[in-house]
Amino acid sequence: MFRQENLNYYLFITLATLFIGIGFTSADFFTSPANDVKDFFILFSQWGTLMLALWSVIYLLSINKYLFGLFYPVICFLSGILMFFRYTTGTTLTTMIMDAALDNDNQLTYELISLSLIVILVVSVAIALLFVFYRFRYIKVNYIWLNLLSASVIFLILFNIPRINRPLSERIPFNLYFISSRYITEKKEVLKEREKLNSSIVCGENSDLLVLFVLGESLRPDHLGFNGYHRNTTPHLSKEDIISFQNIYSEYTYTNVAVPHIMTRADSIHPERAYSERSFIDIFKQCGFYTTWLANQESSKSYVYFMNESDTLIYANINKSPYVFDKWLDEALLPSLNYFIEKKEQKKMIILHTIGSHWYYNSHFPDEFQKFNPTTKSRIVKSNTPEEMTNSYDNTVLYTDFFIFQVINSIRNKNAVLIYLSDHGEALGENGIWLHANDALYTHRPACFIWMSEIYKQNYPEKYRNLHQNKDKYYRTDFLFPSILEAAGIESDIIDPDLSIFR
C-alpha cells in the first residue's frame, strides 16, 4: 500500500510536469534550428533537463496541497500567455517586455486579447484545476519531511549548475521568476547613486555637433574587407573614408563585463570604476548634449545604469533574447535614429547598441544578405562545418557594412563623427574554439573604426590628422572614454590625453 501510494504520487508529479513541459515549455524549442537526428536528440535532452528541474519544483509545491492549489493554476495561466505569444508573434519574456507592459495603457492591453488567447487560457486553467482536484482528493503524502528534504536536494543541485541554470532561466515557466527577478534587480541598480564626474570640465565650442557611438557585437577586424580580408564583406564602407584601428585589445570577452569597462574610466588598474562611477554620458549631459541610447540588445544589470543615464532610452526589439532564433536585425534601430538626428536640440550624442555578429549568426542578417554559402543549419555549433560557421559569420559582417552605411547616410550632411567599437571579438575555430566568452586570441580583438563628415573634418582638421597618425598603434578598449570626449571637444582633468586616439 505504501509503495502504491508513493508510486501514484510520483506519477502525479510527472504528469503535472509533462502538462506544462509539453503544453508550454516546448514553445521555446519550436524555432530552434536543427539539422539532423543528432541535433533533435540534443534539443530533446535539453528539454528533458528542463523537465527534471520542473519536476523538482512541482515536487516541492505538491507536498503541501494548499500551496499546489494556489500556485499550479497560476503557473499554467501565465505560461499559457507566454506560450500563445511565443507561437503567434515569436515573443519571449524579457525585462524590456516587462517594462513595456507595466508602462502600458489599457487600450493596448485590450488589443492584445483575442478569442484564441482566451480559449487557451480557459483550457489551461481548467486542466490545472483538474490536477488540483486530484491532488486534494486522491493524493496522500507520507513522510512529509523526508519528501521535503528529497525535493529540496534535487532542486538545489539542479538550480546551482550553471550550464542548466542559464538556459533554464530563459524558458517557460522558469522565466516567470527569473526575468521578474532580473527586472527588479535592474530597477534597483538604476536607482543607485554613483559618483558624479564633474572635475573642471571644459565643454568647448560645439553648438551643432553630433557624436554617434556604435557599440558593436562580436565583430573582429580581420573579417572586414577594408582591412584586407580576402572577401569583400564591406562593399559600402570600403568606398568611404574609414579610419580603421586594427590593434585594439579587449580585456573582457563577453558583453556584460566588456560594456561597463568601455563606458567608464575603468582600466586594468582601476576595474572597479566600471561599477562605481558614471559613464561618459553624464559628462556629455553636463555639456548640454541631448543623449540617446538606442538598444537592439536586452539590458543587463552591469550596464543598465548607463542606459538610463541617457535622456532617452529606446529598445528596438523588446521581444528578443539569445534564445530566440527568429530574425533579429539592426536596421530596426534606423527609424528611431533618424528621428533623434532631426530632433530640435543642437548638440546630440547617440549610442546605438547593436546585435551585430552575435550567435546565432543566421538570425542577424536578412535573407538577401546570404552571399556566402553554405550557411549554418543548426544552433548547435558542433553540428555545423567550419565553412558554414565562417560563411554565416561573414554574412553578418556584410549586413553590418550595409547597416553602418545607412547610418552614415543619415548624418553625412551634419557636423558629425561616428565611432564604431565592438564590445569584443569572436573565435572562429582557431584551435577548435568558437564564439566568445572564452580566452581565445580573437575574442580579445574587437573591430574599431572612425568616420567623419566633411563638415567635421573642416572644423577639426587636427583630429582627422591625428587619427591617421595613430591608427596603427596598440590600444586597449580603455581608449574609448577619453577619445569620445575628445571627439566632442570636451576637456577635463579626469581624462588621460595619452589614451585618446584623437590626440
Secondary structure layout plus pairing:
Blueprint: H1 2-23, H2 37-63, H3 65-89, H4 95-102, H5 106-112, H6 115-138, H7 144-159, H8 162-168, H9 174-191, E1 209-216, E2 243-244, E3 248-249, H10 255-263, H11 280-286, E4 290-295, H12 304-309, E5 312-315, H13 334-341, E6 348-353, H14 386-411, E7 415-422, E8 427-428, E9 434-435, E10 448-452, H15 454-459, H16 461-470, E11 475-476, H17 480-487
Parallel strand pairs: 1-6, 1-7, 3-11, 4-5, 4-6
Antiparallel strand pairs: 2-10, 7-10, 8-9
Helix pairs in contact: 1-2, 2-3, 2-7, 3-6, 4-9, 13-14
How would you describe the overall organization of this protein?
The chain contains 17 helices and eleven strands. α2 packs antiparallel against α3 (65-89), α4 crosses α9 and α13 runs parallel beside α14 (386-411). The mean pLDDT is 92. It has 503 residues and is of the alpha/beta class. It is elongated. The protein has two domains: 2-191, no CATH class; 209-499, Alkaline Phosphatase, subunit A (3-Layer(aba) Sandwich), CATH 3.40.720.10. A seven-stranded mixed beta sheet has the order 2-10-7-1-6-4-5, with helices on both faces. A two-stranded parallel ribbon has the order 3-11.
